[in-house]
Amino acid sequence: QAQLVESGGGLVQPGGSLRLSCAASLVTFSTRHMGWFRQAPGKEREFVAAITWSPGNSYYGDSVKGRFTISRDNAKNTVSLQMNSLKPEDTAVYYCAAALRPYLSLVTSYDYWGQGTQVTVSS
Question: In terms of DSSP bridges, do strands 117-121 and 10-12 run parallel, antiparallel, or are they unpaired?
Fold first, then answer.
């Protein structure tokens, strides 16, 4: 059974906002760097954002920098992605992932993945 479960996806108008959440059952969650990736049909999985376990430094892909904010709550074993000023090109399935390696923009650095949640930005 999945140890990472995303929620909060849906349909939103351009310029709107959406908040995604990821609930983790990983016993090591608080010691894991966490990331969000997205994948649109016919495209490679793209790095969106990541946050370290301590002290909680955050990193963003160029396409979302200034619009998205990643956060985590280690007490609740959750990581969130606040998405503002959404654009049609943000439409994708968004995945939460837990990292094994510190190269957080790389898909290959992660060993646990959620099943994804669909985000559609359309008027």
Answer: parallel
The residue whose two tokens read 């992660």 is: 110
Q: Give me the sign of the Cα torsion angle 30, 56, 60, 23.
A: positive
Residue 25 to residue 5: CA distance in whole angstroms: 9
User: Is the CB of residue 48 less than 8 Å from the CB of residue 60?
Assistant: yes
Query: Going residue by residue through the chain (123 aa), what tens digit of pLDDT does each one get?
Result: 679 999 999 999 999 999 999 999 988 888 899 999 999 999 999 999 999 987 789 999 999 999 999 999 999 999 999 999 999 999 999 999 999 999 999 999 999 999 999 999 999
Give the DSSP per-residue string, 80-114. EEEE-S--GGG-EEEEEEEESSS-TT-GGGEEEE-
Give strand pairing partners of 96.
36
DSSP letter at 37? E
